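Request from the bench team (R.T.):
"We need a structural guess for the complex before ordering more S-adenosylmethionine. Sequence and SMILES attached. Just send the tokens back."

Command: build protein-S-adenosylmethionine structure.
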Amino acid sequence: MKLEDAKRDQYRRLAREQGYKSRAAYKLLENVRKYRLIKSGDVVIDFGAAPGGWMQVASETVGDSGLVVGVDLEPVHLSEPNVVSIQSDVNSPQLSLKLEKALPRKADVVLSDLSPQVIGTWDIDHFRQIELTLAASGLMAGFLRKGGNAMLKVFDGERFGETRAMLSKQFEKVHVTKPKASRKGSSELYLVCLGFLQ
Ligand SMILES: C[S@@+](CC[C@H](N)C(=O)[O-])C[C@H]1O[C@@H](n2cnc3c(N)ncnc32)[C@H](O)[C@@H]1O
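Reply to R.T.: structure attached below.
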């Protein structure tokens, strides 16, 4: 077994043991610990939330006084009392209204792990993923409070630089990260964006 496959299996096993819906949970957990991205009592929006690993990590971190609202094309089945899931396309014109109804106030944190169905043609996958990230960041502009944080997945490629530059204008600080649970060979990077300027 290759080292990368072993690492993937290790996180998959850990997720099973610790009751997380996906090994993706560890990508968020690493950055929550490193950057204090999410805090107790926070309101969090999670775009591309299914099957729900990130929502579980966010739910544990915000605790009883916080709320996590997940959005995905697929349903998310979680029983935690501080989570709400919205089954929707991020590009749906009705989504803003649904978010307004679900949120008690503007969010402290916006997360996006959105991925298209990858077809293996690298530049097409990259462009589609960037389009999804732009849809999430468009919504973020209306729903994230001043001073809030974000963590957005971006596939590396031609449009990575412009996406990072756009976010750098919107936040005090943007860190490019590759969490340990992310396969080395995959083109995904995670932008940790701190201090939304509005
Ligand atoms: C990598 S998975 C997310 C994993 C999740 N962070 C977790 O921890 O379980 C990417 C998700 O993006 C969702 N997605 C893709 N296109 C979407 C769209 N247009 N609108 C909403 N969700 C979308 C997929 O359905 C998929 O569940």
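Two things stood out. The chain has six helices and seven strands. The helical segments are 3-18, 25-35, 53-62, 95-102, 122-143, 160-170.
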